[in-house]
Design brief:
The structure is a single chain. It is built from 18 helices and 16 strands. It is α/β, with parallel strands linked by helices. A five-stranded parallel sheet has the order 3-2-1-13-14, sandwiched between helices. Strands 5-4-9-10 form a four-stranded antiparallel sheet, with no helix packed on it. A three-stranded antiparallel sheet has the order 7-6-8, with no helix packed on it.
């Protein structure tokens, strides 16, 4: 048994979730469901990022308070994740008292370390808006490549920037030219941690290429010290005298949500939290070597440096012996019908809408089998409908339905006594090991493809054995065929449970199975209950209707 921590990135609570968010976060739920089925202890956490300028701006636009805006979207997020089957052990929010108190205590210890110092710096101020601006709300030309950039980063060349280095900087909110005013802040000396961080990143050569490339680029350019505090109205108070009018910078508190939510998930078991999160300060080794601990962090590639550089920096500088991230599952980008998803132009497929109209397993399957795991991917309504009708309904659903309905119609509804086909039995046995290995490496597309390879092989077996003929000509062969197919269905339900929990739960209910990660056996003589349909066929016209709805929503803004 292992102890597994899985942290899913925290979406900003200033607007609805779209399918791009889910494409990046879904691997976390697959990992959690698999590890639980494999008998491991799992702590799967995430939450809503409620602080920062984006939430404050949305509140100002709608004439509401930041609390009202973030609270509304937090509740919407919870409902979306519930509909999609995300099995969080705890889903929190950065505006909760639990998180705020944890962060303030963490920062108190952090400020006593040799890595934090005070510095007077120029901070962007917009006269028109009447407020200081977070770096990401300053735009201009990149001093490195000349491309359009934000005050914290250039998406064109990937350079890490400071707002004052931008050429012709303006306010991203109102478009006015900005000025810079001097303000005193606390900084974390990333530069002093650079070698330790370099050693840490280089010791994880198994990370995805994008994580290694982005992290390597940051390190090769030389890490710049970063402000821990900011002149903001909405955020967590700075636990230091003289900073009463300032807030903790959002990047220095939201990543600590993994720790605060993990602690809250295990609040009745503080020793388990310690085992999961703490290491020996001197050796750097986990405190309970008898029960291995492994931390996964799941997010989109734009969040890579926050999980491979920023979070480790905070954990190291705090000095309390926190466990550093082990595995980084960083997805690439998802486009929509060949275009970049744009929330500002309403060019997006909103999760709250698609989960009302379609089976959640259909979306999960599409994003896992066709998603941006290793390279950018595109969501197409036509391909979404085709993947549902072709793979889920036509292959998987058809195999389950034709087998179980045949037993009900011709074999009295009882699983027959028979001898399982050796080739299929061997294939399913091996598939458990290969699927487990793929999931633990974050190769989810590979795992799904292999499982559906078994689905196709099972359909071919059913067709070749022709039970509709042998039920009259060779009863023994017919029973062997149906017995074999039922065992394959049982194994498929377990193998696909991490990926497609809703349809797997249906099958487990029909066959009285648990989702434990082991070869399944349905006993001869078991009487099947009423069997339903796993998936309904989707009309191909829906693709045209959904695409038209998308374009209409975009053009009518």
């Amino acid at each position: 048994m292992r102890n597994i921590v899985i942290g899913g990135a925290w979406p900003y609570a200033n607007g609805s979730l779209h399918i791009g968010h889910i494409a990046a976060l879904l691997p976390g739920d697959v990992l959690a469901r698999y590890h639980r089925a494999a008998g491991d202890k799992v702590c799967f956490v995430s939450g809503s990022d409620c602080h920062g300028t984006p939430v404050a701006i949305r509140a100002r636009q709608e004439g509401k308070t930041p609390e009202e805006i973030s609270g509304f979207y937090h509740r919407e997020f919870e409902e979306c994740f519930r509909k999609l089957g995300f099995s969080y052990d705890y889903y929190g929010r950065t505006s909760s008292e639990v998180h705020k108190e944890f962060v303030k205590e963490f920062h108190r210890k952090l400020y006593d370390s040799p890595y934090v110092y005070e510095k007077e710096v120029p901070q962007a101020f917009c006269v028109s808006c009447g407020s200081f601006l977070a770096d990401r709300f300053v735009t201009g030309s990149c001093p490195e490549c000349g491309g359009e950039a934000r005050g914290d980063q250039c998406d064109s060349c990937g350079a890490v920037l400071e707002a004052e280095t931008l050429i012709n900087p303006v306010c991203a909110i109102c478009g006015s030219a900005i000025s810079f005013r001097s303000s005193r802040h606390l900084f974390i000396a990333l530069s002093r941690l650079e070698q330790e961080l370099r050693d840490y990143v280089e010791s994880h050569g198994n990370w995805r290429k994008n994580a290694l490339a982005f992290s390597g680029k940051y390190l090769s350019e030389g890490l710049r010290d970063r402000a821990l505090t900011r002149d903001l109205d909405w955020g967590i108070e700075v636990p230091r005298e003289g900073y009463e009018t300032k807030k903790i910078y959002i990047w220095a508190e939201n990543v600590l949500g993994y720790l605060s939510s993990g602690k809250e998930a295990l609040r009745d078991r503080p020793e388990e939290f310690r085992k999961l999160w703490k290491t020996d300060k001197k050796s750097g080794q986990q405190e309970s070597p008898d029960c291995p601990v492994r931390h996964y962090y799941v997010h989109g590639k734009d969040n890579i440096p926050f999980h491979t550089i920023i979070l480790p920096s905070l954990l190291l500088a705090n000095g309390e012996g926190w466990h550093l991230p082990d595995e980084i599952l960083s997805s690439e980008y998802l486009t929509l019908e060949g275009k970049k998803i744009s929330t500002s132009h309403n060019y997006a497929v909103w999760v709250k809408d698609i989960t009302d109209r379609y089976d959640s397993d259909s979306l999960r399957y599409y994003l896992l089998a066709n998603g941006p795991e290793k390279k950018d991917a595109d969501f197409s309504w036509r391909e979404f409908i085709n993947s549902h009708n072709g793979e889920l309904l036509g292959a998987y659903g058809n195999f389950v339905n034709r087998t179980l309905v045949f037993i009900q119609k011709y074999l009295g509804g009882c699983v027959p006594r028979g001898i399982a086909d050796g080739e299929l039995e061997t294939a399913t046995t091996k598939l458990y090991g290969r699927t487990a290995e793929s999931i633990e490496k974050g190769l989810l597309k590979e795992a799904v493809d292999e499982i559906f390879g078994l689905v196709r092989k099972a359909n071919k077996y059913f067709d070749s054995r022709q039970p509709w003929i042998t039920r009259d000509t060779d009863t023994g062969d017919c029973c062997n065929t149906l017995f074999t197919c039922v065992q394959v269905i049982a194994d498929l339900a377990v193998l696909l449970y991490p990926f497609l929990p809703f349809s797997s739960a249906k099958i487990c209910g029909w066959l009285q199975l648990s989702p434990d990660w082991k070869k399944q056996q349905v006993e001869p003589g078991y009487r099947l209950p009423g069997i339903g349909i796993l998936f309904q066929r989707l009309d191909k016209k829906l693709a045209e209707e959904e695409s038209a709805r998308l374009e209409k929503a975009c053009t009518h803004l």
